[in-house]
Amino acid sequence: MGMNEECGEECAVRFGVVPAIWILQAVYFTVCLINDAAGDHSPNPPNPPLIRRIKDYMFAAFAFPIAMFVGVTFWSIMAIDRELVLPKKLDAYFPFWLNHIMHTNIVIFILLEMFLSCRKYPTKKKGLAGLTIFMATYLSWTFVIYYNTNLWVYPVMNVMDWPSRIFFLLAMLAFCLILYLVGDFINNKRWGHNYSKLSPKNSVKNSNGKSTKKIN
Questions:
Q1: What are the residue boundaries of the structural domains of the chain, listed by start?
Q2: Residue 4 confidence class, pLDDT cut points 50, 70, 90
Q3: pLDDT grade, residue 12 (50/70/90)?
Q4: 3-state SS of the chain?
Q5: Is residue 211 over pLDDT 50?
């Protein structure tokens, strides 16, 4: 279906940058498929292959926090005033069912992935660094779009002055980083027992040179 003048440049701007987030989800689940076919999906592989390490990092740093970020922020603003995120005039090009596929399903599937598939989170330094770089690049791109088109990707920014816009974007970045920590916490509660390691103080070496738990 082509875009007519009613939608015009606003649709082109919005759908020219927003899909990057859903492309990321598609890439992540493609990596999951490759790992299931040719990698290792056991709870705690001693020497995980590269594809498994990529899968685990992508989930922690990108897939989970960004999917949750999109779902929570979109539906929160939608509940306040839909014109701030998805103007009614776009319904002809973005129907109700497609809206839920893009803003609801990603949350459902990423939560299922969290609780049904084991992974090892990276260190907080590495995970937060990757997420910060991605979000900073994505949010900066919204300014590039505005500079070239004089249109904001997110209509909510039309009702803000410049200090409010800067604060809003920084708040979104901070919220996304908090979601990373939430994901790390949930993953540790759900799967942490698979990665618990013996403390040197509580282990001894047997005749084969392997560490076993010391029994007091």
A1: 8-213
A2: low
A3: low
A4: CCCCCCCHHHHHHHHHHCHHHHHHHHHHHHHHHHHHHHCCCCCCCCCCCHHHHHHHHHHHHHHHHHHHHHHHHHHHHHHHCHHHCCCHHHCCCCCHHHHHHHHCHHHHHHHHHHHHCCCCCCCHHHHHHHHHHHHHHHHHHHHHHHHHHCCCCCHHHHHCCHHHHHHHHHHHHHHHHHHHHHHHHHHHHHHHHHCCCCCHHHEEECCCCCEEECCC
A5: no
